[in-house]
Amino acid sequence: MFENLLTFDFSILQQGYVLPAVALLVACLIFLPTLERFDVSPILGYLIAGLLIGPSGLDMLHHSDALETLADLGVVFLLFIIGLNISWAHFREIRPLILRIGLPQIILTGIAVAAMAALWDHSLALIALLGLSFALSSTAMISQYLLQNDLLKTNRGKLVMAILLAQDLAVPVILIMASALGQSADENWTAIAIALVVKAIIAVGLVIALARYALRPLHHTLHKRTKTQEITVGLTFLAILLSATLTSMAGLSKELGAFLAGLMLADSGFQDRIHRDIRPFQGLLLGLFFITVGMQIDIREVISDIGWLFAAVAGLFLCKAALVTFICRTAGMTWMRGLSTGVLLAQGSEFVFVIIAAAMASGLMPSNVAQFMLLVTALSMLCTPLYIILSEKLEKHSKSKKPS
Questions:
Q1: Residue ranges of the domains in the chain?
Q2: pLDDT, tens digit, 9 for 90 and up, residues 281-321
Q3: Residue of 276, 272, 283 whose CA lies nearest to 140
Q4: Longest Cα–Cα distance in the chain
Q5: CATH of 86-137+150-275+307-400, one of 1.20.1530.20, 3.40.1640.10, 1.20.1250.20, 2.102.10.10
Q6: How far apart are CA 232 and CA 108, in angstroms?
Q7: Residue 396, exposed/middle/buried by CB under 10 A (0-12, 13-18, 19+)?
Q8: What is the pLDDT of residues 355-390, one digit of tens each?
Q9: pTM for the full predicted model
Q10: Among 190, 279, 270, CA closest to 222
């Protein structure tokens, strides 16, 4: 009897959110203070933490549904905060940049990457999907950088956000492609596309109506009656989860729903309080997302394919940096401003992991191709702190020169 009482059930550590939460706290308490002494980005700290505690390192933690759910919440919260920092007036201000630079960037980069992918024996559908997937950049990492450095409302921040927002709006279309292209060609895709567009319009309309006519008045009423922090946090969680659920039910990304909810609350008058009260949750959850990215870097695969991997990461960097520079220049910006923007956005996107999962589920992407693309994406994201440093130097150089 006493022996049973003294027996510990260690299997519970493999269940639910216990190990993911422990891993995140260990990263915060050990890695971040250590790296801060050397002025290293927290993002890089989380990536290194994931690499060390994941299967390629100490093998303390494996990818799980629970871990993925927590990591997704981090990106969702980030998109909500971005929306909270961008009012409708600000969105209308950057709309021309979305059309003149963001949209061409997706199209031209997609064509260029697809042309490189065509050198291998892939299907035309897979080539198109790879091109569009790698036209995306990391909204999570770059937006975090812009927020931390108060750059969102600068000219540089507006340009970068316009490109990122154009990419985020393209994600639902790419996800639909990933699911549809791997299925039977006998389906009536015209009818399916129309149904998806109708559902998307309904979902976006519901999110906007919910935020403007229900959540904003509720926030306003409760904020006048109480200053309890839990009220703000609870209402904000409700807004994020309801909006994300509505858009995901329509086949759109959860992140888009969260962004729209934040956008609706941006001019509410209490956006600063919302941002202050939920920021710690967002930071921790986003940190967990970067840990999961680090965990997906398989050192053995990197070593076995190191030449091709580095060639792919370098090719992605050069392709995206060059094309963004060219597009910015044709839009009337200086070469240095275009180059600094291109370098900053030269990594892969967290959405590539989601797109690859959808493509594998539909049978469009073989597992060996998926693993290679995951590694390219993860390694390019791991290089982002270096891209940021280079971009900042180029930006300083552009400010020291007269516009051409």
A1: 86-137+150-275+307-400
A2: 766 777 777 777 777 777 777 777 788 888 999 999 999 99
A3: 283
A4: 83
A5: 1.20.1530.20
A6: 43
A7: exposed
A8: 887 788 778 888 788 888 888 888 898 888 889 989
A9: 0.73
A10: 270
- Residue 128 to residues 172, 173, 235, Cα–Cα distance (Å): 15, 12, 41
Residue 124: other Cβ atoms inside 10 A? 10
Integer CA distances (angstroms), 146 to 14, 84, 104, 160, 194, in order: 36, 14, 22, 9, 36
Does 171 score more than 70 pLDDT?
yes
Q: Which amino acid is at 340?
A: S
Query: Which residue type does 53 have?
Result: I
* Rounded Cα–Cα distance for residues 218 and 256 (Å): 22
Per-residue confidence (pLDDT) for residue 137, from 0 to 100: 93
Residue recorded with tokens 């922090």 = 229
**Long-range contacts of residues 328-335, Cβ cutoff 8 Å, at least 24 apart:** 328/101, 328/159, 331/97, 331/100, 331/101, 333/159, 334/398, 334/401, 334/403, 334/404, 335/404
Residue identified by tokens 């946090």 is: 233
Burial letters for 146-158: b for 16+ Cβ neighbours within 10 Å, e otherwise?
Answer: bbeeebbeeebbb
Secondary structure of 135-166 in HEC code, one letter for each residue: CCCCHHHHHHHHHHCCCCCCHHHHHHHHHHHH
Q: What's the rounded Cα separation, in Å, for the pair 343 and 214?
A: 41
Question: What integer pLDDT is reported at residue 21 of this predicted model?
Answer: 65
Two tokens, residue 160: 């970068």
